[in-house]
Structure formats: C-alpha cells, structure tokens
Amino acid sequence: MGKFNRYLITAALPYANGPVHIGHLAGCYIPADIYVRYLRAKKADVKFVCGTDEHGVPITIKAMKEGITPQDVVDKYHKVIGDSFAAMGISFDIFSRTSNKIHHETAAEFFLKMYNDGLFEEKESEQYYDPKANMFLADRYIIGTCPHCGNDKAYGDQCEKCGNSLSPDELINPHSALSNAVPVKKKTKHWYMPLQNYEPWLNEWLLEGHKEWKNNVYGQCKSWLDSGLHPRAMTRDSNWGIKVPLPDAEGKVLYVWFDAPIGYISATKELTENWADYWCKEDTKLVHFIGKDNIVFHCIIFPSMLKAHGGYVLPDNVPANEFLNLEGDKISTSRNWAVWVNDYICDFPDQQDVLRYVLTATAPETKDNDFTWKDFQDRNNSELVANLGNFVNRTMVLMHKLCGGKVPQLHADLVNDEDRLMISEFAAAKEKVENALEAYKFREALSEIMALSSKGNQYMQRNEPWILAKAIEKLNKGEAHDKYTADDLQMLQKRIDICLHVCLQLTANLAILINPFLPFTAKKMLHMMKVVERMLDWENAGSAKLLSVGYSLREPELLFKKIEDETIAAQLAKLADSKKAIETAAAAAVAPKAEEKPAAPAKPEIQYDDFAKLDLRVGTILQAEKVEKADKLLKLLVDIGTEQRTVVSGIAMHFKPEEIIGKQVTLVANLAPRKMRGIESQGMILMAEDNGKLVFVNPAEAVQPGSGVS
Question: 120, 241, 344, 365: which is deepest, by most CB within 10 A?
C-alpha cells in the first residue's frame, strides 16, 4: 500500500444529457470500481467519488430540442445514469451532481480565491454569436466546410472526417448548429487562466516526476507542453451554470471544465465532514480514472488549478483508457450507435458480471479496442461458463456427491507433489494479480485469475475423482478391478478427499480474487460456501485453509449460463436497425427536399360552448413502457396534479419510453375511459403531426402538473 494512509479515487463525471453506454463503462467506471474494491479488500481508507456533470452548452441544447428546461434534463439523466451504475455494481461512496448547492458554493469560492490572488487575466474578445438563438456559440456548435478535406459537416474545433484541429475562423460557410443562422462576431469579456505561467512547474511535476504514467497519458501531455500552453478562458456567456461571483459578470458562468473537476471536491465535502483529509493531506493518494478525451483537463488544467489555489494534493496517477469501438465502428450517441447500459440490464437480467468481464478482458488500456457481440458470446461461453463456472460447479457437485456435502480432509500421508504445486499456485496467483492491479493493468490481473481457474480444471481432470469413485463402487460390490484391489479402498477415498479439498480451497481463493471484477459472482460463491463477506478480505487470498474440514456447504448453483445464438442475433438486429436509420437520415440529408405536405383543411366550425366542454390539463409523464404485443402503443403514467392517470397512447413508433419520462404534455382529462389491449386509458395526449413526425403539444416553460389549458 506504499506511503499513503488514505486513497481518494475519482471517476470522470458523466454528462447528464443522455444515458451511459458500454464505452463509458470500459473507459473508466469499471476499472475504477475494480481498483476501489481491491483497496477495500485490503482494508484501505478509501473514498470513491463521482456524480453527474450538469452544466455546459450540451445541456442547454438538449433542453431546447426537447422543449423542456435544463433542470428537467439533468434531473432526468442523473437518475437514469445513477440507476445504470448501481445496477452494474459500480460502488461509489457518493454519486453527487454539480447542480447541488454545495457544489455551486465550492466552485464559486475556488474561483474567487484565485481571482483575489490575482491569478486571472481579464480580457475582452470577439466571439461567435448566434443572432437568431441570441447566444454565444461554443466552437462545437459552429458547423461548416473543412478547408482541408471539404467535409461540409466539420465542427468549429475539429473535422471528424480528416481529424484536423480547426478554429471557427477556418470553416468555409460557417453556420450555427442551433438555428442554422450565420454566426456573427460580438465582443464579450471573460477571465482567463494564463496556463503558460505553469509550464515550468508542469514540466517538472508531470514530465519529470511522473514518467511511470501510462504512455498514452504521458505522451498526450508532453505533446501539449511541447507545443506551448496559452491562456484559457475560465468563464462563458450563458444563463445555465455557476454564476461568476463578481459584480460585473451578469450573464456569465464558470467554464464547465473549471467547474466540473471541482465537483470531485464538493462531492467529498457532501460525503464526509473530514473531506479535507482526503484533499489536503500529503499522505493521500489521489487517482483520477478517465477516458483519453479528458486527459488534458485532468493532467494539465485541473492540476494547474489546484497548484494555483494552493493547499490541495495533486493526482498521483491518471490511468486513462483509450476508446472502445462497437462492431468496427466508433460509438456515437448522436447516431445511436451504442450499447446502452440501461438496455443491457433489461436484455440480460442478472448478467451484469458477464459485461463487466468482457469489458475488462477487452479493455482499451493501451489502444482503441472493439466490442463485438460475437466476442461477447464466445467469452461468456468459453471462458466464464466453460472455465470458471465449470470448475466451481464440478467442485461443488462432486463434493456433495462424493463427500457428503462437507469439506473433506487433506490427508497429509497421501498429499503428493502435484497437490502441493496446485496449492502453491494460490499464493503465486495472488501476488501476480496484486502486482497487476497496483500497476492499473486490470486486463492482465483478470487473465491471471482465469489462468488459475484453468489450472484448477486441469488438476481435477488429471486426478479424476469420479473415476476413483467408480473404482470404489466396483470394489465394494466385490467385483474385480484392473488397477485397484480391496486393499486400496481407503487410499482411493483419501485421494478423492485430497483432490476435492484442494479444489474447494481454490474455489474460496477464486471468490476473493474475482470479487473486485465480478462482485455478483463472488457473492453467489460466498452463498454456496456458507461463509461471511469478511472472507473476501485480501489478506485471506493465497491461503489453503479458508474452508474448515467437516463444514457443510450449500447445494451448487450455476454461476453463468450459456448465451445462445438467437440472443446475439437479436442484439445485432437492433444495431442493424440503428445503422439503417443512420443511412436513411444521411440519404434524406442529401436528397432533394420533398414537397411539404399541405396542412389538412379546417374542420367544420364549432361553437364556444363545444370547446368549453374540453378539460385540457398539463401533465407530467412519470412512467412509460411498451404495451405487450402492440408495436404502436405506450402505457404512460401521467401526473395531473390532483391524481396520476394511466394513458395508452399510439406513439411507440416515435419515442422510446426512457426518452419521454419527465416530459410535460397536454391531456384531455375528461375524455371517457376506453380499454385498449386490456388497459383502461384515462385520457388522451395531444400531439402535433409534422409530415409524419409526432411532436408533443406542451408549454414552452415547465408549469405545475394539473395547470389548466385555455
């Protein structure tokens, strides 16, 4: 455990504008969780903090597109993301959010301390402004033609087709991604952190002091420092975010990459009153788990902020992973080319550890890697089922069948070199796994555990206790055996006992070693062995005396189940549908616009009294789910203030259930109930139809559920 007395582990704050996918898990959350579970097993003083990043332009864009407030967006996705992490066993000590009051106060105080110390430069500059949307534009929200390759969908910071970094000034025919308007330059004032002043210190602290960091991290940081650092604005023009705590800063908020990493500090404050022990004492080891797109912010900008502020520990390591691709293509949330964690949990119930295993075994630790459903199936069936699951199941089944369901003796008089070699592998594997974990080589650590399980299978296969049992059965019947005689009966049973004793002790060791990686599996193994969770303490690994002789164990249960071809075919079909939708959208973008469908003619005139009979109310969708055997129907639970109504609506072809939770709608509240697919629908949702696309009719701003519409 080295010189450190406590550990503070952070995982990158996910952006609260959508659910998380397997690329997020592989990038930092599963590696961080493995490391934290390992530290806890070693009884280290460790805090694992995370939360949702809830400020910045993408949040406001999402809110504009959905016709809701930014707060509605972050409230919705904080829960979706938090639930997904919890379901996958990501064991945060706290999962906070940057919209919390304690974070606003902490970030504002941090900025003010640096401001009062004279560490910012105040500058006025011209920045791009959308005159139609009435807002300044981040570079990412300016689109135009790349001057290098001609891609007409290049962003103001990068062309994703040719990979060149860009500035908005370089784009040909730039336009706003929000309104399609041509952006104009407009003067604005901001506060800049002069990062160039920290170059000498960064060269010494990072390049000279942390050569042990992963090559991808060290290399990217060196490239930035070699190119020279420049002042970077720490504020932005926006109404959504943490207000700049200065009197002349109306309409300005803290830059999200100034605000977000401070979220680690505010989350720790929220977690414990002793937060300063973890942030301000030099014997704390601070480790940031991130993806490679966050390297610069966590290794250059945030450490410079901590150094400038003073009084904080600096990261000891930042083990960033590369990107995970999906079926040979880059994961893209905008193109829906992803495996969403909440979808996986629904499609593969009680199989969280399978995904944890595959994402660790194929982790992009040193280079981008590819997730395929075929590899997922193969690794489950040939590694988890046929290796680890097979060994544990055979051991437990044979122990019940040949040893009366109790841990047999290790008869010292008949223990041989092969038995001793197998037992010695326990401690050897522990050391290898430990060394790999300390070096953040999680894929290697997992491989060592699976190799130990494989050795257990081989050991059992060579000793063949089931063959020895058949020999005993034959001799007890008085039948002749070609290899053994009646004098060998005692020896044969002892050899069975020794083999299964060693295999049971190995099973206990595997539970300890696998726990950081596959916690749900380790829990099942504890249940079968009838032992308490304390057995998973790391100090117990390597021991050959974990299960007492004569101790009764429970009946075996399968740790893993085979994944059939049909299951994988369904997942591939889902991806194929996504790809088809992407191609259709791309074709529509370049095809000549079809003539717009004329609006339907007005219906016959009605009297005011007819209209007055309608009771129209604003409701908020609390729950949404598909109706079985009805492709077009969603079952909704809508809050209309005075009560919650069940409404069946034919919108399933247009909206995913998880996308509309929290959405405000207009409900015809006094429509007579009607049964649809056996469900009583208590109202009707009003929708607008635009050339076949359905759009909710809802208030421009959030209102109280039950508000009347007149």
Answer: 241
Q: In sequence order, which ranges of 515-559 are alpha helices (DSSP H)?
A: 519-529
158: pLDDT confidence band, cut at 50, 70 and 90?
Answer: confident
Nearest-angstrom CA–CA distance, 691 and 694: 8
Q: Which residues contact 21 (CB under 8 A, 6 or more apart)?
A: 331, 333, 338, 339, 340, 341
- Show the tokens assigned to 202: 């960064």
Name the burial class of residue 372, with classes exposed (0-12), middle (13-18) and buried (19+) by CB atoms within 10 angstroms of its CB: middle
Q: Which residue do the tokens 């591939």 mark?
A: 572
Q: What angle do CA 530, 533, 537 make, to 5 degrees?
A: 125
DSSP per-residue letters across 315-333: -SB---B-PEEETTEE-BT
Helix 417-438 and helix 489-514, axial crossing angle in degrees, nearest 10: 0
Contacts (Cβ under 8 Å, ≥6 apart) of 284: 4, 5, 6, 7, 8, 277, 278, 313
Q: Residues 172-202, buried b or exposed e (16+ Cβ, 10 A)? A: eebebbbbeeebeeeebebbbbbbeebbeeb
Report whether pLDDT(1) > 50: no
Beta strands across the sheet bearing 369-371: 329-330, 324-326, 369-371
Helix-, strand-, coil-residue percentages of the chain, each rounded to 5 = 45, 20, 35
Asked whether residue 355 carries a pLDDT value surpassing 80, the answer given is: yes
DSSP string, 221-287: HHHHHHH----EE-EEE-SSSPBPSSTT-TTEEE-HHHHHHHHHHHHHHHH-TTHHHHHH-TTEEEE
Residue 41's SS3 state is: helix
- What mean pLDDT, rounded, does the chain reach? 92
Cβ–Cβ contacts within 10 Å for residue 273, how many?
7
Residue 658 main-chain phi, psi, to 5 deg: -70, -20
Question: pLDDT band at residue 677, thresholds of 50, 70 and 90?
Answer: confident
Q: Which of 134, 140, 131, 194 is nearest to 167 (CA)?
A: 140
Specify the DSSP element, H or E, that contains 589. Answer: helix 565-590
Structure confidence by residue, pLDDT tens digits, 690-699: 766 788 888 8
Could you give the CA distance from residue 69 to residue 82 in angstroms, rounded to a whole number? Answer: 20
Half-sphere exposure at residue 175, Cβ-oriented, CA atoms within 13 angstroms: 9
- Give the whole-number percent of the chain exceeding pLDDT 90: 72
Query: Is residue 205 predicted with pLDDT exceeding 90?
Result: yes
